[in-house]
Amino acid sequence: MDLQKRRIEWSVNQLKDEELTRWKIRRKAGIKDSYYKELEEDINRYL
């Protein structure tokens, strides 16, 4: 789970010049459906 959280942070940094959306962050970080519910709160912190 820590790896996915680091990938979310990395993807937000990569997308800093774009408008952030949940699906862009999720797609860039490669978050699978099985992890999404657990990581949704972490993604929402960056929005």
Major sheet characteristics: none
Q: What is the overall shape? A: globular
Give the overall average pLDDT: 95
N→C terminal distance: 20 Å
Q: Estimate what percentage of residues fall within beta strands.
A: under 5%
Main structural class: mainly alpha
- Which residues sit in consecutive blocks of at least 5 with pLDDT less than 50? none
Number of helices: 3
Please tell me how large the radius of gyration is. 9 Å
Number of strands: 0
- Number of domains in the coordinates? 1
Would you mind describing this structure in some detail?
There is one protein chain. The chain has 47 residues and is mainly α. The protein has one domain (2-45). It is 72% helix and 0% strand. Helix 1 (2-14) crosses helix 2.
Features of the shown structure:
single chain; mainly alpha; 3 helices; globular
Brief account:
The model has no long low-confidence stretch (mean pLDDT 95). This protein has 47 residues and is mostly helical.
Please give the structural blueprint.
Elements lengths: L1 H13 L7 H8 L3 H13 L2
